[in-house]
């Protein structure tokens, strides 16, 4: 297998998942800034033009972060980051979907239609007028999540899972593009620091982001 990788929170989710699993894959970088992901070579791999994308040994391609991580979990079941039992897997998928639909998607589109508009306006459909409302939606659901995190180490209680990885990578990204975590959400803040302390959090940074962090 080979991972087509790039800057951005979605590829980081897969890299962090790989790091937690102890899986090493060859990676090929795709230059988002230059629009390489919208050119014919990458569109043959993923017609949506999105990143990341996993090339399978048989030559097929899988995109979408959760689908890639599900495949990796099935081929490398330990440590279990989705779940070792049907009940654990259902709990992880429940939280992953809540995070993805209610926080990640509005947060990401709030950025694409706002601070990222110059990059995205000629690459995909954008709605600049929706940006403030989408950001507000993400904050609203993050406040709901803060209440759910009371007394929990991670989203699936004591288990660290894909849901935590997804939320962490996007909240870390959001802080640098005008959507910082509200300081009053103490449970989210404590959870974020617990995840940030895991070795995979730094290991999953893109090489370009690593250089920025080292200079900071």
Question: What would you say this structure looks like, in words?
Answer:
This protein is globular. The protein has helices at residues 9-21, 40-45, 65-75, 86-112, 117-120, 131-148, 162-175, 186-196, 199-203, 207-215; strands spanning 2-5, 27-29, 53-55, 61-63. α4 packs antiparallel against α6 and α4 (86-112) packs parallel to α7 (162-175). The chain is built from ten helices and four strands; from the N terminus they run βαβαββαααααααα. The protein is an alpha+beta fold. It has two domains: 2-75, 3-Layer(aba) Sandwich (Glutaredoxin); 86-206, Glutathione S-transferase Yfyf (Class Pi), Chain A, domain 2. It has a four-stranded mixed β-sheet, covered by helices on one side.
Question: Keywords for this structure?
Answer:
216 residues, alpha+beta, Glutaredoxin, Glutathione S-transferase Yfyf (Class Pi), Chain A, domain 2, 2 domains, four-stranded mixed β-sheet, 10 helices, 6% strand, globular, disordered C terminus
């Amino acid at each position: 297998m080979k991972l087509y990788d790039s800057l951005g929170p979605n590829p980081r989710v897969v890299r962090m998942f790989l790091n937690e699993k102890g899986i090493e894959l060859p990676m090929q970088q795709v230059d988002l800034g230059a629009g390489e992901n919208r050119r014919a070579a990458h569109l043959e791999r993923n017609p949506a033009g999105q990143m990341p994308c996993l090339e399978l040994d048989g030559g097929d391609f899988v995109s979408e972060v959760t689908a890639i991580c599900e495949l990796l979990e099935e081929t490398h079941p330990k440590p279990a980051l989705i779940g070792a039992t049907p009940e654990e897997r259902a709990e992880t998928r429940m939280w992953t979907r809540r995070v993805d639909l209610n926080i990640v998607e509005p947060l990401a589109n709030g950025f694409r239609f706002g601070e990222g508009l110059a990059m995205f306006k000629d690459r995909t459909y954008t709605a600049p007028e929706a940006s403030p409302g989408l950001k507000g939606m993400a904050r609203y659901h993050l406040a709901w999540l803060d209440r759910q995190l009371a007394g929990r180490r991670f989203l699936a209680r004591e288990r660290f899972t894909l849901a935590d990885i997804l939320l962490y990578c996007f909240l870390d990204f959001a802080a640098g593009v005008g959507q910082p975590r509200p300081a009053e959400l103490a449970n989210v803040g404590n959870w974020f620091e617990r995840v940030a302390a895991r070795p995979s959090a730094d290991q999953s940074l893109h090489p370009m982001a690593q250089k920025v962090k080292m200079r900071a």
